[in-house]
Each structure stands twice: as structure tokens, then as C-alpha cells.
């Protein structure tokens, strides 16, 4: 197996950290970014110059471009770019502050888009590569009390549905990874929450708040981060990149139900849809 060089954002914890550990263990080279690179000190001590580190907050677009340019300049060809940095924001829309909304969008959506814009010229110049976007089954389904998180995940799905076609002629392939609930720190007691409003105390936002605080039983979390990371790595060894990688039994069941329900609702509106065409337009039957 040929070794690869990877560029990964958000490697201090969660999927990013798990990916870095597995890749280094198998002999690959990793350019790891995180807001706090001290969290990677143990990996640096074990793997030496196979781990390239840089401090990065993906909401700082100028810094992001500088780090990406430096990584390609110092490491040469980078085979796989993993856009992983992100976090959850919980609460009803009106419970969230303007600053929380701006930060969520800047990190999960704009940061991912700007990373893509920064790496694509390098990947195109080197003759191709892979981009792996860590999305979520939350880009296919939505639950109350997570509106801004879902907005970013649905948004990045739409971005890549379009942008993947732009860059396919340059042999740059894109995979959207859609995990379900996994056993990471996402949604733990330190989760970012809106300011509680009494109007939502007994509804979904209040229940989710109490669940994340440990006052109610935890949400089922079937996803194993190590297995999810291994599946992501294995997908990059395939000759043709899967457009989507749905990981976790919950992700599969949720996405399947949501897509079937959406298609059923759409098909029920076929006659109405056709009835609104202009009289002089004849659609292909």
C-alpha cells in the first residue's frame, strides 16, 4: 500500500484526532491543524517529522490560506484533505445569541468552504487529489433545538453537490461523510448552548438541554469513532471516491426514512407541479 500525505483540520479531538492516530500508525504522513497544537504533543513525540503541525482557527480565513499554502510548500504533494473542524450548537433559534450564530456558521460552513477554496488550486496544480468533508446525517435530516447546526450541515451538502462537479475534471474527488451519533465529546456537558427561555423549557430545547446536562438519560450513541475513522481511511483507498459515506446504523435508518418520506411527499405533488407550467411549454414525458 502506497503511503499518503493528509491535511486534516480539527485534530485535537474527535474524528480528527482518531484519523491522525490511525494514519500515523499505518505509516502515512499527516499535516494536522488545531486551535491548540499542544494537544498533539504526544503524537509529535512518537512520530517525529511524519506529523506536521500548525495552529489554525478555520474562522480566520487569512490564516487558513497561509497555513494551507505553507503545508503544500513544505510537504509537496498532499493526497487527501479532510475538512473536519466543526462543533454543535444547541437551542431554539431565538435562544441563540448573534455571536453564537455567527461563530457556528463561520466554523462549520464558511470555514469548510474557505478551506476548499484554499486547497483546490494546489490539488489542481498537482494533478488531482481527494477532499473528504466531515458532514453529518444532520445534513439529510433535522431535529428541533439544532436549527443552526443543521443549517450549516445542509449548507455544506449543497455546496459540495455543486462544487464537486466543478473540480471533477481536474481529478479531484469529493466524499461527504455523514456519521450518526458517535461516542465523541460532541454534545457533552461542555456543549455550546443558547440561553434558556422559559417558553421552551418543556419542549424539545428544554429536554435536549437536560439530556446534555445529564439530568435525563443520554441519547443513544452507536457510532464507534475508531471504526468511523477506519471507514473514512478505507474509502480513500478506493479507486473511485464514494460521493457519500453514511456511517452508523442510526445514520442509515434516519437518512433512509427521511429520503423515502421526502420522495413520497414530492410524488404526491406531481400533478400540482406540472399544472403550474406555462401553457406554451410542453415538458418531456
UniProtKB/TrEMBL annotation:
InterPro entries: NAD(P)-bd_dom_sf, SDR_fam, SDR_oxidoreductase
Keywords of the record: Oxidoreductase
NCBIfam families referenced in this protein's UniProt entry, alphabetically: PRK06482.1 (NF005065)
Family: Belongs to the short-chain dehydrogenases/reductases (SDR) family.
Protein name, as recorded: NAD(P)-dependent dehydrogenase (Short-subunit alcohol dehydrogenase family)
Species in which this protein is naturally found: Streptomyces rishiriensis
